[in-house]
Specification:
about 230 residues, alpha+beta, four-stranded antiparallel beta sheet, 6 helices, globular
Length: about 230
C-alpha cells in the first residue's frame, strides 16, 4: 500500500518534535473547474476565516505563529515565503482563489481548520512521499516567466519529495508543477500538516471535513489515511 512507505525523516522531527502529518489517499474523484459546489465551500471558509482572525493579523494566530517558527528553524524567512495557511488567510478579505473543484476543497479546509493542506495527483507521483531536509541538488519542477523551469532547494530546506524530485518546497510553501492537481486528476494524495497548537484532534477534524467535502463533490470516492506522528 502506497501510504505504508511514506516517511518523515528523523532530521525533520529534530526540528519540530511536535510535528505530525496526516496523509489521505482519495480515489474516484471527479475533477474539473471550480463550480457552485466548490465555490460554496470557499465562501464558507471565507466566513470562518474572518471569524478566526477577528481583526487580527494571520501571524498572530497560534496555529500560524508556530509555522513561522518552524520555517525559521530551517533558515526560511516566513515574511518572504509564507506558510501556505498564512498565505490563504491573507486572501480571505479579497476572496479566496477559485482554482478547481479538488483544490478548492482542500483550500477551504486549510482556512476553516487553520492548518496547511496540500494536494497532489497520485498518478504523477513516483514512489513514496518523504519529508526530508534537502541536500540542495534535488530537482523542483516549476514555471518561470510562464515557461517550464527546474529549480533546486536550499541545502537543509525541509521538502516533500518522491523518487523524481521535490514535490513541495519549504514544508508547505510551494508545490511542484509535475504533481499538481489538474482537471484530469482522479486519484490524489493530500497532506495535512499539524503542530502542537492544532493537536491530534485538530488534524482528525480537518481529515473528517476534507473527506466529507470531497465525498460531496465526488459521490462514490474512496479514502484511506495514515497519521505520521511523533
Amino acid at each position: 500500500m502506497w501510504l505504508d512507505d511514506a516517511d518523515v525523516a528523523a532530521e525533520v522531527r529534530a526540528l519540530r518534535p511536535d510535528y505530525a502529518a496526516l496523509l489521505i489517499v482519495a480515489e474516484g474523484l471527479r475533477p474539473g473547474p471550480s463550480d457552485d459546489a466548490s465555490g460554496a465551500l470557499l465562501a464558507d471558509a471565507e466566513r470562518r476565516g474572518r471569524k478566526h482572525l477577528a481583526g487580527a493579523r494571520p501571524e498572530e494566530l497560534p496555529q500560524v505563529a508556530e509555522w513561522r517558527e518552524a520555517f525559521r528553524a530551517f533558515g526560511a524567512k516566513p515574511q518572504r515565503t509564507r506558510p501556505s495557511v498564512e498565505a490563504l488567510l491573507r486572501r480571505v478579505e479579497p476572496g479566496l482563489p477559485r482554482i478547481d473543484r479538488i483544490t478548492d476543497a482542500y483550500n477551504a479546509v486549510s482556512v476553516g481548520c487553520l492548518l496547511p493542506v496540500g494536494g497532489e495527483d497520485l498518478d504523477r507521483y513516483a514512489g513514496p512521499a518523504r519529508l526530508v531536509r534537502a541536500t540542495g541538488d534535488e530537482d523542483f519542477d516549476t514555471t518561470a516567466d510562464g515557461q517550464p523551469a527546474v529549480e533546486h532547494p536550499e541545502p537543509g530546506e525541509v521538502i516533500w519529495r518522491d523518487d523524481r524530485g521535490v514535490t513541495c518546497r519549504r514544508w508547505n510553501w510551494r508545490q511542484c508543477a509535475r504533481t499538481r492537481i489538474t482537471f484530469s486528476a482522479t486519484r490524489a494524495m493530500f497532506v495535512l500538516d499539524g503542530l502542537a497548537a492544532l493537536g491530534a484532534a485538530g488534524l482528525r477534524a480537518a481529515e473528517a471535513e476534507l473527506t466529507a467535502s470531497l465525498a460531496r463533490l465526488s459521490p462514490g470516492a474512496a479514502f484511506t489515511s495514515r497519521l505520521l506522528s511523533p
